[in-house]
Amino acid sequence: MSDHALDVGLADFDRNVLDESRHRPVVVDFWAPWCGPCKSLKPVLEKLAAEYGGKFLLAKINSDDNQELAARYGVRGIPSVKAFINGEPVDEFSGALPEGEVRAFLDRLIPSPAEELRGQAAALREGGDLPAALQALADASRLDPDHVGVRLDAAEIMLDLNEADEARRLIGSVADDVDPRVPQLKARLQFLGAAGEDEAALQARVAANENDLEARLKLANLLVAAGQYEPGMDQLLEIVRRDRGFGDDIGRKTLLSVFDLLGGGELVSRYRRLLASALN
Q1: Long-range CB pairs of 267-274, under 8 A, 24+ apart, other chains included
Q2: Which residues are catalytic?
Q3: Which CATH number describes the domain made up of 196-279?
Q4: Which tens digit of pLDDT belongs to each residue from 166-221?
């Protein structure tokens, strides 16, 4: 038995399948000793588990000895192969498929090299290292130039950096109906276009004059474009509180546009309540 295949039962299923699937795909083979097709499929799965070198874990479950698990996951015939990612079954097949079809099944589960770089970029961005995140995305783009997700990830970072021209180019290369992020990124780009000055200059204007509502509005647009939604909405609320009539009620109207951009959730609910309070 390879290091990437093991026998699993009810006692260690949660640890070896559900928990492990949060780190890499786990492929579960429900089999039985009397099953002829199981005997054909098992060596194929074991061979591929060794060949893929840990990119997935093969968990072999004797369905006769683990009928509770078989019933829990709706196993009606064997061999039955189910793939788990992040603790949930995501794909499956039944019967002894040829090796080529099993390989194709596995390749749908395992991230491509470009996807792996994309994941690294997301972690770097989360850690605040935007230049390194962009480099990882550039490397991913060289591996897969048509990867829409890579382009949009880079566009998000460009918006974080207030780089409107590059963000516009990347967003414009993807049709609106290809990825639901496209309309949202276009909305963020519009906020960036409405700012017109850099953040430091706008922060200085507000610090010098708390009633400089034009600076507050531009700063709010800049913050929202960079994905800093809470501080941006705080500036808009302050405009509403200080002068409801400023710019034909532009503070409230812009805040409603941010709500539309975010599309709901706890943050929007909280700021809707704050807006209602400010209007009373």
Answers
A1: 267/229, 267/230, 271/233, 271/237, 274/237
A2: 35, 38
A3: 1.25.40.10
A4: 999 999 999 888 888 898 898 888 888 776 678 899 999 999 999 999 999 999 99
